[in-house]
Amino acid sequence: MQNSNVLQASVSASFCVSSNVEDQARSFSGWGLSYTQISDGIFRGSSAMSAAGGMSFLVEDLNKKILQRGTVPKNRLAIGIPLELEGHSRMCGEQSTRDALHVFSCYSEFEFLSPERHIVANVEFDIPSLSSDLTQQLGQALHAKLLSPVVLLTADAAENIRQLLRQALGSIQAGEVLFPEQHKERLSLLERNVLYGIMEAVADFPDLTSERLPKPNKGWDLVKRVQQLLQNPDSCVLSISELCIELNLSRRTIQYAFENAIGTNPAKYLRAVRLNHVRHDLMSGLSVTDAAIRWGFLHLGAFAHDYRVFFGELPSATAKRYGYAKTLMAHHPAD
CA-based angle 318:37:98, to the nearest 5? Predict the structure, then answer.
């Protein structure tokens, strides 16, 4: 029989609400994640998390278009199934739909563009930590099979996975795996149910019909090239004219690629990414003027207006709030 401390550590549940994308990205334990807000307006996100042994669940609710980039820790299988998904959605450049399985762990690094309204149920398996040899073998087999970032399912198969994850979450939240004398057996049964259910749903993958194959998007490669230019203030392009010269492409080519790939024109995208960089710098303690100039905003009045429209507050409010928080931490350090 396991002692109560081990038992309590193996099963957990929590819920958090975020008002900025950086806090939201930290919901995924151990992932090297960065979130960039693409559509304007006040961001609201939430994460409902549950874990049982080597298996964890996270239901994420986002109200803005977000470009997510990151890596999944080694030896983990991580997939998601949308509960709600409307609008442009791309997983590593491939078209996604509500009835698609998103495989975050298929590449060393993933890029996911979530639409304006997005709720997704994620399940993650830390394969070495699964409770039995059988479930570890199942996890390894599924990991080896899911080598594409998007698996387009039938509507019935997608709904079966949603129902499966709801039932697993319900079991954890109801405490059905908390009996010490049967804990390992119940945990193994829960893992088996989820793993076998997912394996059944993707049993014919990759031998899918042409109608169900994910459709690559040529514009995504261009979006990735632009994203790389925007990561460093020294190379950050400030206008479409500058971007055309840098990439040796016409304005029309760039415009078409962005509209087709992410449903946003390139000018708005450049502004959105630069504003995200400024917000990150303000949260790190940089002054409003220094952060704005660092990312190419020379007209501070126009910058402050754009920032407020995009994030719902003035840049000075962001700087003051996070500066105040850092001051409190400096005066009252954690034990």
Answer: 145
Beta strands 66-70; 76-86: pairing state? unpaired
Q: What CATH homologous superfamily does 4-212 map to?
A: Jelly Rolls (2.60.120.10)
Structure confidence by residue, pLDDT tens digits, 273-330: 999 999 999 999 999 999 999 999 989 999 999 999 999 999 999 999 887 445 444 4
81: helix, strand or coil: strand
Strand partners, 200: none
Give 117: exposed, middle or buried? Use CB within 10 Å, 0-12, 13-18, 19+.
middle
d(CA 261, CA 59): 25
Give the containing element (helix H, strand E) for 220.
helix 219-229
pTM above 0.90, yes or no: no
Domain 219-331 sits in CATH at: 1.10.10.60
Sign of CA dihedral 251, 252, 258, 263: positive
